[in-house]
Amino acid sequence: MSRIHVVELSTATPEQKVLLEAIQKQLGMVPNFLKVFANSPVALQAFLGLHGVAGAGSLDPLDRERIALTLAQQNGCQYCVSAHTAIGRKTGLSDEEMAAAREGTSDDPTSAAILKFARSLMARHGEVSALELTEVRSAGVDEAQIVEVITHVGMNFLTNILGKASLVEIDFPSVKLELA
């Protein structure tokens, strides 16, 4: 049971209802973590805005999901590991690629560099070294993509801490945090 109220359409305020219905229309469902976000329509709108804009960047969609899986595992958010495993499959990641991403790596050298950089950003609270920036650039990641990686790290940290703080019920096929 969630430690923070889960807003259902049936009990939503008019402002919450508009947002939840828009999500329902777009996704065909309203994930529970967005129902928690709906307690503050402003917070939900901010997240949806950032998510929409960040998704339109130059970072490969597979790398965006790899980042999400890497950070969900690193931050210990079972909700996010479960959600991004389901989303990763729909995006085109294989089970092997998702397992590697959860370990912070990839067979693709550019993706591996991105994940290493993302993990370091999280672990070091953004205080990455000049060498780390040089390494990610040397892997073919341009300045726009570096900023997008930073954006995705921040956005995923937000969802990780929301998932962990709320203990929201997992509404995707549940995936254990520890790797098999």
From TrEMBL:
Looking at the record, the residues that make up the Carboxymuconolactone decarboxylase-like domain are 43-113
Q: Does the keyword Transcription regulation apply?
A: no
Q: Which UniProt keywords apply?
A: Oxidoreductase, Peroxidase
**Chain ranges passing through the membrane:** none
Keyword Oxidoreductase assigned:
yes
What InterPro entries does the record tag this protein with?
AhpD-like, AhpD_core, CMD-like, Uncharacterised_peroxidase-rel
Alphabetized GO MF terms: peroxiredoxin activity
Protein name listed in UniProt: Peroxidase
Q: What is the lineage of its organism?
A: Bacteria, Pseudomonadati, Pseudomonadota, Betaproteobacteria, Burkholderiales
